Predict the structure.
Amino acid sequence: TLVGWGNNGNGQTNTPAGLANVSQVACGYAHTYAPLPATDANGNNRPDTCDLLDDPSLDRDGNGVIDALDILRNPALDCNRNGVLDMADLLDHPEWDCNGNARVDSCDFARGEPDDNLDGHLDACSYAKGDLDLSGQVDAADLSIILLYFGELNPPFGDLDGDGEISGGDLGSLLVLFGPVTWP
């Protein structure tokens, strides 16, 4: 990267205070140029700008910056710490976001979302599939839970049709889902 400064007055400009690791080069009347050190966020001993020219897929979010540098600057962009932007993870693996909140499920776990049966799936996603007792099956036990809470408004789980109440629609949805819970 080459940064230049000019001066409308007389004489040479100086490298701005606080700018480190640059070499000031005088370039004629009233101008200074300072090459800035190139970044190598992916550690391959090549400037990121060269990597990006050779392989545009290194910038999955299309912001003109190699994704590894985006992650170095803002680690929250890669909450599961796999070296890939979370948005790119979800483009490649939509099944990693079972609840559709645009966050990788492993990051939901890290934020405290429950997986009480330790099956590697968010409980909320198991509930949405009709597995209300988290057994891995939609069966008579889940039907019993629906019947127990029938008529309940704004239940914590079991509202399979999303109408805010456990009702006949949820009972019908549960019957359609009977059997083993499957995941993509």
Notes: The first helix runs from residue 48 to 54. The helical segments are 48-54, 67-73, 86-92, 105-110, 123-128, 140-148, 168-177. Strands lie at 2-6, 25-26, 31-35, 137-138, 179-180. The mean pLDDT is 85.
